Amino acid sequence: MKNNSLTTLTRVLLLLCGIGLIISIFTPIWSIYLSAPQYPEGLAMFLHANKVSGEYEIINGLNHYIGMKEIHADEFWEFTFLPYALGFFALLCLLAALLKNKTILYSVTILFLIFGIAFMGDFYYWLYDYGHNLDPNAAIIVPGMSYQPPLIGYKQLLNFEVWSYPNIGGGIMIGVAVILLILAIVEYRRAKKTV
Any transmembrane segments, and where (predicted)? Predict the structure, then answer.
């Protein structure tokens, strides 16, 4: 059973990961920022675990002209699922720390990495759908043009400059993924040495 025990440093970091994931439920996860000559101060939209905030209603009004669907939080099943998923992973991190259990550490690491990849894939699909499935009767139609914002980074869309990047919650989630992976590798190597 001793081989399955975690070091004190690993346990402390797992506790911090659990607390961080709880915090990420209540903070913005992702930011999409638009700037154009007619909006020099910019427009910002923030995606949380359970809602959309910022100036998305203004963005909806602009998107209407190019045929993009309106953004409404109640249309996304992810906003129902995500707070519980983050809470579940927070609980696993806290359990691994409190029970000093490597098996739980390995399990939460693998599951959270799979979740992270699936989350980013789902977000990419969401952006793709909004940027490509346009109303053919829109007021402004540019043949061959799509309006998919970048997943991460910068993109020019007509006269709008668009940036997309992790916010506080997203930064925490990325940090937790990195810490879990490092902890799992370190603990696995430590266990191999003691065998």
Answer: 12-33, 81-99, 104-127, 168-186
51 neighbors 73 (Cβ within 8 angstroms) = yes
Strands, sheet with 153-157, edge to edge from the N-terminal-most edge strand: 52-54, 39-47, 30-36, 160-166, 153-157
The Cα–Cα gap between 144 and 62 comes to 19
* pLDDT tens for each residue of 67-91: 888 888 888 888 999 999 999 999 9
Tell which residue, 182, 157, 119, has the closest CA to residue 36.
157
Reduced 3-state DSSP string for 134-170? CCCCCCCCCCCCCCCCCCCEEEEECCEEEEEEECHHH
Contact 172, 23 (CB under 8 A): yes
- 109-150 pLDDT, tens digit each: 999 999 999 999 999 999 999 888 888 887 888 887 888 889
CATH annotation of 2-194 = 1.20.140
Residues 6+ apart with CB under 8 A from 85: 115
Q: Are strands 153-157 and 160-166 parallel, antiparallel or unpaired?
A: antiparallel
Beta-carbon contacts of 12 under 8 Å, excluding residues fewer than 6 positions away, are: 97
Domain layout of the chain by residue ranges: 2-194
The alpha helices in the chain, defined as continuous H runs, are 8-25, 56-66, 78-99, 102-132, 168-194
Answer yes or no: are the C-beta atoms of 36 and 156 closer than 8 Å. no
Of 94, 101, 98, residue with least CA distance to 3: 101
